[in-house]
């Protein structure tokens, strides 16, 4: 018998994965005094199927081994545990079945379990928020039972919690005998949790790896629908995390004003739009495997807007969602990205750096420009960009993004727009800057390119035509970073 086979024979298979070269499993926690009493469990555990992702047709009941057999639980595959959030209606929202379908499409042999805590989740918000502790205890008991009774490895368990459900997942991770492999927090709820102790909310210690999407952190911390602080190993803030494209607040107010109660019901969907976008971004990562969405480590969303954070060196970039690279650091890593308003959400990020020259010193603020990118595959025209400031003899950096995969970038054009024909400031004196070259870095390919004016220098006049820049030759030619 070989050394590896002997080692396998001498240890309990589910607890020796480290020695066998598998993903690490945490040492057992102190379980003294724990009893296998399942009488207090109120949450239900529905094992849904690819054929019936919309229905709860079979329940796994802790303490009842035959329920696991009857539901055809797959003991050798991954298990995804979906935990919903607060609900006004007392019913599942439509995203639940969509997530179940997407999980099965990506992992056909897996087990997708939906935790039903609808009764506890449909109370007054503060009551439902406190109920997350009870739900977390239920989930922990269920997971421990599956490991103890059937030898099911917690390396295969992935909890996905939305809103209040994210904190319930965190509580569950704190209480299991061994650490769960992964918890994904989908815009964890903010009210009652922003300033809560780690023992009451999702935190990095709750699983071997914890990743979090923040999509609706608008307003003051104590009133933000989604939690603002980082609570995982990796915390990703799409579009800055405060508001998502396509979720128009103005439309919400207009609907309420025009349609009254009916408008309020429709507006409720718009209010939830940014909060729920976290789920749809994760679904996107399951369905569009060939188009992974990239996120970039950055100190602030302001620095990201300047295009300063598109590096992939030393784990500075990562995939959003299912195929995230499980990087664990002592401090939470904050990451940012831009997305489209609808699926597929992926966009391509570019840092643009320009040095502005002029015959006289001048500074202009909040100036609108249109950037066009022409590549070997496609083109993306008239991308709107507003620069907070431009001034003579200074270099400015800003972020440009497009949903179009243009291939290798060949030509960049830039047009300086007028804000209004009624702006008298520029009636007699049209401002003009000159530009020699434009530097561009692609976030997705990590290529650095330099673009030169065809005439050696181009003049950019407000309200006039676009200036064109082509790939430089010779000593100014392209530079690339792998």
Features:
VLDL, 482 residues, eleven-stranded mixed sheet, 8 helices, alpha+beta, nine-stranded antiparallel sheet
Can you put this structure into words, describing what you see?
The protein is an alpha+beta fold and 482 residues long. The protein is 23% helix and 28% strand. The strands form three sheets. It has an eleven-stranded mixed sheet with strand order 2-1-4-3-5-6-7-8-11-9-10, with helices on both faces. Strands 12, 13, 14, 15, 16, 18, 19, 21 and 22 form a nine-stranded antiparallel sheet that branches. Strands 17-20 form a two-stranded antiparallel ribbon. Strand 3, helix 3 and strand 4 (111-116) form a beta-alpha-beta unit. It is elongated. It is a peripheral membrane protein.
Instruction: State Rg.
Output: 26 Å
Mean pLDDT: 88
Unreliable residue runs: 1-23, 30-34
Helix content: 10-25%
- Per DSSP, the total helix count is 8
Question: Strand-residue fraction?
Answer: 25-35%
Spatially, the strands of the biggest sheet line up as 2-1-4-3-5-6-7-8-11-9-10
Principal-axis shape equals: elongated
Signal peptide: 1-21
Keywords: Calcium, Cell membrane, Chylomicron, Disulfide bond, Extracellular matrix, Glycoprotein, Heparin-binding, Hydrolase, Lipid degradation, Lipid metabolism, Lipoprotein, Membrane, Metal-binding, Nitration, Secreted, Signal, VLDL
EC number: 3.1.1.34
Enzyme class: hydrolase
């Amino acid at each position: 018998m070989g050394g590896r086979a002997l080692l396998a024979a001498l240890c309990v298979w589910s607890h020796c994965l480290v020695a066998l070269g598998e993903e690490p499993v945490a040492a057992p926690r102190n379980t003294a005094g724990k009893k296998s009493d399942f009488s207090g469990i109120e949450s239900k555990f529905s094992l849904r199927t690819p054929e019936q992702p919309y229905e709860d047709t079979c329940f796994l009941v802790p303490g009842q081994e035959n329920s696991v057999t009857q539901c055809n639980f797959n003991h050798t595959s991954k298990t995804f545990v979906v935990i919903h959030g607060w609900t006004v209606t007392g019913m599942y929202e439509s995203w639940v079945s969509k997530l179940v379908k997407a999980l099965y499409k990506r992992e056909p042999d897996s087990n997708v379990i939906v935790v039903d805590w609808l009764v506890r989740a449909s109370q007054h918000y503060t009551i439902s928020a406190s109920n997350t502790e009870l739900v977390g205890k239920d989930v922990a008991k269920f997971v421990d039972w599956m490991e103890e009774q059937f030898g099911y490895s917690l390396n295969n368990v992935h909890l996905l919690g939305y809103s209040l459900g994210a904190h319930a997942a965190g509580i569950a991770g704190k209480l299991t005998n061994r650490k769960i492999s992964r918890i994904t927090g989908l815009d964890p709820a903010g009210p009652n949790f922003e300033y809560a102790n780690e023992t009451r909310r999702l935190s990095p210690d709750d699983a071997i790896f914890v990743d979090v999407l923040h999509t609706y952190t608008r307003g003051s911390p104590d009133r933000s629908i989604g939690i603002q602080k980082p609570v995982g190993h990796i915390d990703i803030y799409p579009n800055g995390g405060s508001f998502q494209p396509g979720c128009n607040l103005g439309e919400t107010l207009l609907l309420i004003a025009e349609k009254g109660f009916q408008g309020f019901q429709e507006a409720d969907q718009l209010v939830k739009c940014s909060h729920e976008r976290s789920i749809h971004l994760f679904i996107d990562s399951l369905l569009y495997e060939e188009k992974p969405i990239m996120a970039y480590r950055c100190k602030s969303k302001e620095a990201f807007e300047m295009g300063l954070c598109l590096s992939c060196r030393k784990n500075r970039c990562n995939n959003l969602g299912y195929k995230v690279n499980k990087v664990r650091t002592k401090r939470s890593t904050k990451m940012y990205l831009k997305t489209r308003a609808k699926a597929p959400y992926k966009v391509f990020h570019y840092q643009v750096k320009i040095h502005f020259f002029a015959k006289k010193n001048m500074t202009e603020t909040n100036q609108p420009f249109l950037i066009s990118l022409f590549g070997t595959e496609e083109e993306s025209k008239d991308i709107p960009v507003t620069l907070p400031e431009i001034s003579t003899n200074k270099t400015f950096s800003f972020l440009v993004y497009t949903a179009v995969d243009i291939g290798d970038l060949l030509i960049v054009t830039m047009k300086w727009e007028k804000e209004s024909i009624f702006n008298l400031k520029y009636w007699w004196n049209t401002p003009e800057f000159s530009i020699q070259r434009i530097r561009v870095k692609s976030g997705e390919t990590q290529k650095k390119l330099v673009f030169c004016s065809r005439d050696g220098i181009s003049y950019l006049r407000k309200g006039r035509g676009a200036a064109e820049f082509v790939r430089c030759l010779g000593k100014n030619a392209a530079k690339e970073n792998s």
